[in-house]
Each structure stands twice: as structure tokens, then as C-alpha cells.
TrEMBL record:
The keyword Transcription does not apply. Residues 1-19 form the signal peptide. This is 5-methylthioadenosine/S-adenosylhomocysteine deaminase. GO terms for cellular component: cytosol. The keyword Signal applies. SUPFAM superfamilies: Composite domain of metallo-dependent hydrolases, Metallo-dependent hydrolases. It comes from Rhypophila decipiens. InterPro entries: Amidohydro-rel (IPR006680), Metal-dep_hydrolase_composite (IPR011059), Metal_Hydrolase (IPR032466), Metallo-dep_hydrolases (IPR051607). Coiled coil: none annotated. Its cofactor is Zn(2+). GO terms for molecular function: deaminase activity; metal ion binding.
Amino acid sequence: MMYLTALLPFILTIGPAAASSILFSNGTIIGFKKGTSDTLDSLEVTRNGDVLVTNDRIAGIFSGPAPTSNVPNGTERIDITDKIISTGFVDTHKHGWQTAFKTLGSNTTLAEYFLRYGEFATEGLLTPDDVYYGQLAGIYEALNSGVTTILDHAHHTWSNETSEAGLRASIDSGGRIFWSYAFHHIKNFSIEEQFANFRDLATKAEFEGSPTSLGIAYDNFGPNPDVEEVKTVMDLAKEFNISVVTTHALGGPWGYDNSPENLHTLGYLNNSASHGPAIIFSHASYITATSATLLRQTNQHISITPESEMHYGHGHPVSHLIQDQASLGIDTHFTYSGDILSQARLWLQATRRLLHQQVLDRWHVPSANPFSVNQAFLLATRNGGAALHRPDDIGVLAVGAKADLIVWDGTSPSMLGWRDPVSAVILHANVGDIQHVLVDGKFRKKDFKLVDKNYETVKSKFLESAARIQEAMMDPRRIVGDLEGSFMSGFEYERPLRVDVQPGGGDGYGRVFLD
Ligand SMILES: *[C@@H]1O[C@H](CO)[C@@H](O)[C@H](O)[C@H]1NC(C)=O
Ligand SMILES: *[C@@H]1O[C@H](CO)[C@@H](O)[C@H](O)[C@H]1NC(C)=O
Ligand SMILES: *[C@@H]1O[C@H](CO)[C@@H](O)[C@H](O)[C@H]1NC(C)=O
Ligand SMILES: *[C@@H]1O[C@H](CO)[C@@H](O)[C@H](O)[C@H]1NC(C)=O
Ligand SMILES: *[C@@H]1O[C@H](CO)[C@@H](O)[C@H](O)[C@H]1NC(C)=O
Ligand SMILES: *[C@@H]1O[C@H](CO)[C@@H](O)[C@H](O)[C@H]1NC(C)=O
Ligand SMILES: *[C@@H]1O[C@H](CO)[C@@H](O)[C@H](O)[C@H]1NC(C)=O
Ligand SMILES: [Zn+2]
């Protein structure tokens, strides 16, 4: 139970401590201004301004040097001249435990993912320590890239011990993790045992005093739900005042509905009067007009995971039509970029391409750009907070909001010369330009380095674990390859036209998986 010791230093810092303040001075601030009845919400840029953080909150934003009377004694001062300070990114869909599979799924399809990498295919493969180090390494990748809030669909719940390990890693990471316990039908851990385990974790509440909290993940809301089981899940959410429930929603040829209509029929979507949990539908690729309307009426959201949906082939043919109730997620970070910045950029440009193409298809010329950088920034930050029903304090840089912050090195080779800070971030920056990251007012990355004095140990423990897991994944019995017949939804498989960058005969391919 190696991972228990890692928690100790964290616990010791909790308790009544003196207020601690940090002043970021003379930087460009990408702030947020809430709209009134006459105006829309908007980003508000302040140049050569100061941001004061006290404890876990943003205590002040100043358009020049903060007046001394506002700055408490003992404040840590950080000069951010020529740098940009923004809120942290919000990822509303991730499976942190899967880090050890890194690069294995590079040529994978979604059907193969289910058969080889998913929660059912890998039951029994990971020890609690494997889950702990995978989850921690996965969250560290996110924190390093400025993702400060994560909705983790935690489907590593194969036993009491693996569940506990993933939750502990989330707490230990210092990230703002909505660690969402997945209730699922697996072989060696009955759903009743999972309910008992969940109650136990919720009652012990070891996350209290940390930015981590408990959510619920459940993928059996529809089309043919076990109504009693759904009721047990949603009663647990109510009993423990759970703030978020998330589900994989796909539809189309994939089946796997879990749609807003499914939840509405069951009576769980329209819950604001009863202060029910935020409901977040990951992907929702084939969402119907009715479901989209329901999301707007009930203020619930989807999580678009752009790279995942392009890589594996989920598709997202209509997601651009419901971006006002959407946020961004990463999904399986072991397969591609683990940062929301890349997701925002990919989604921005892919959506521009789609909407430009609609005009070009009519043999017309686009007269305006369909998607602005400010909208992309809001989608990657503010909309994530809104999806979690935390519009006032997560994903916004505003007085009173959580101090979840990124400082960008505006003088890096890729950013140098910017006039508009939002474009500098969304279209020019990369993760290497991120100098500081704070969550809940505490540095998680400082001067380009993760803040964890045990990081070298975490790295070597993770690498040992990953080497073992990767070896097991290479077992020929686990390799899937080309699929024939029909997917489990009943729809037929079809081989897409394959790219061949090499001239000559053959299809340019051997096996498309590692051996
Ligand atoms: C800050 O410290 C100075 C000198 O030690 C003291 O005079 C002043 O009252 C302190 N201010 C606050 C707000 O504590
Ligand atoms: C504030 O930043 C500007 C550049 O944006 C710089 O010219 C000025 O010297 C800085 N002021 C201080 C007090 O560092
Ligand atoms: C089966 O579950 C038990 C108890 O939950 C656990 O200790 C054991 O490691 C599990 N076995 C496998 C192969 O996952
Ligand atoms: C798992 O935890 C629950 C709740 O504490 C407990 O009732 C159950 O016996 C545990 N299962 C195992 C196999 O230890
Ligand atoms: C439930 O949690 C919310 C925050 O998510 C809090 O505002 C509220 O007071 C809690 N209610 C109860 C009954 O604990
Ligand atoms: C949601 O519930 C409220 C009452 O709390 C009701 O006024 C509203 O019509 C309902 N909306 C939908 C879409 O069912
Ligand atoms: C991807 O496919 C290529 C064939 O073009 C293969 O050589 C390579 O090993 C595959 N990589 C992975 C990670 O599966
Ligand atoms: Zn997922």
C-alpha cells in the first residue's frame, strides 16, 4: 500500500493556517465579465495589471499596481511583466488511470478500443498501485499543461482497492478532480459491492479539505435501462449530495445511447428545482434536436472530445449546433494530446473547416469567419465550469472565483510578438510556454516544473508499472486487429478508404498495431 505514505504531507498542511497571498504583477490578464440582462458574458483583457490571490480565491484584479493597502503583509510577489495570466482549462471527460497504455492505441478504432483497452477488457490487469501511479501520472500531464479541473469518468472501479487507489491519486495530485465512481457490470465485483464501496468512500470523505470531490459515472441510462438500478444510483447521488453525474452518450451506429431524452424520460434531467447534480453527456455525437432542446431547457451539458472523436471514429456530425451547452474533454489521453489547449485548437479549426465547407459546397465564398478565438477560449474554460454547474467560480478569472490559474511565458519563441492575448494562447502557445499553474491558490507547476518533491519517485514507480502492463497488453490474445461482421450495436463493420503515403503496390500497410 505504497500510495498511503504519499498522502501524509498533504494531510499535515490542512488545518487552520494563516491566510496566504500571492500577487502576480504587471501582466496581461484574460479576465471574465459576467453579462447583465442587456449584455453577453465576455472576456475582459487588462494590460499591465495585477492579480491578487488569497488562499483558494482570486481576491483582486487591478488595472495597474495593486494599492499597498490591498496587499496583505507576507504576500509572495511574482513579476509577470510581458506574460499572460488566464484561468486554467477545464476537461469534462477523462479516464486518468489509463496512462500506462501510452502510444499503444495510435492506430486504433473505437470498436478495437472496447475490445482491448476499455474497463471490461482490462478488468484484473491493474493492481491498486498500477491504478494509483497511472492516475497520478495522467493528472500530472494535465496539470503541466494547464488543465486545472478534470471530470474523471473513473471506470477503474474493479475492487475496493483499485477504487480507493484512483481516488487517493486524485487527492494527492492537488488537481481539482471530480472523481466520478463508475458503476458497471463487471465479472469480479458486483454492482452491490460497488454501491457499498461508494458509500464507504463517500462517508469517509478523505477528499474533504482538498480540491477533489466525488461524482458518479454510469452508462446504463438507455435505451433499455434497469429502472431499479438507475434509481439506486440516483438515490446515492441524492443521499451524498453528489455534484455531478456523467455518462458516455453516443447513439448513431454505435448504439450506447444514454441520451438526454433517456434521462428525461427517467425523470433525472430536469433537476435544478431540486438542486440535483450537473449531468454531463460525454461525446453526445448523434444528439437529436429534441435532446439539444432539453439540454437548453434544463441547463445540462455535453462534453465534446474533439481528438478522441476524430481519432477513433465516433464522429461528431452535429456537435457544432449545441456548443452553447457544450464543454471540452480529452477522454483517453494515452492515445493523443493530453491537453485541452490542443483540443480547443483542433475543435476550432475542424469546426471552421466544416462551416466554411457548407458555404463552398454551394459554390459561394465565406464572407466571415464562423468561429472566433474568444469563443474557443470560453468553450475550453468557462463552459467547463458551467457544465459542472459552477459558472461563477470555475473556468473564469474573476474576483471571488477559485484561484485556478495559468501564467504563460509571452516571450517564448512561439508567442513573441502577440498583440491579442487570447489568440496568443489559443493559436500560438504550446504546453512548454506554461510557466506556472495554480489550483485552489497553490502552485502545482512553478517555473516550468511540476511541484511535487517526490516527482522522481512517482515517475520511476509509474514506469515500472507501465512496463509490466504494456508487456501484458502485447499478449497476442489481447491483440484485436481488423474486425469483421457486426459491431455489438448490430451495425456492420466496414473498412474505410486507407491513406497510403508510399507509391507502389500493396496498400502500404502491414499490421496496424505494435508487435
Ligand atoms: C504590515 O506590517 C507592518 C510593519 O510590520 C505593520 O505596520 C502593518 O500594520 C501590517 N499590516 C497589516 C495589514 O497587517
Ligand atoms: C510593466 O510592463 C511593461 C511592459 O508591458 C514594462 O515596460 C514596464 O517596465 C513594467 N513595469 C514594471 C513596474 O515592471
Ligand atoms: C477480485 O475481487 C477481489 C475482491 O474485490 C480482489 O481482491 C481481487 O484482486 C479481484 N481479482 C481480480 C482478478 O481482479
Ligand atoms: C468492500 O468494501 C465494502 C464497504 O466497506 C465492504 O462491505 C466489503 O466487505 C469490501 N469487500 C471486500 C472484498 O473487502
Ligand atoms: C450540497 O452541495 C452543495 C455544493 O455542491 C452545497 O452548496 C450544499 O449546501 C450541499 N447541501 C447539503 C444538504 O449538504
Ligand atoms: C422543468 O421543471 C420545471 C419545474 O421545476 C418546469 O417548470 C419545467 O417546465 C420543466 N422543464 C422540462 C423541460 O420538463
Ligand atoms: C501503426 O501502423 C503502422 C503501419 O502503417 C505500424 O507499422 C505501426 O507499428 C503501428 N503503430 C502502433 C502504435 O500501433
Ligand atoms: Zn470516455
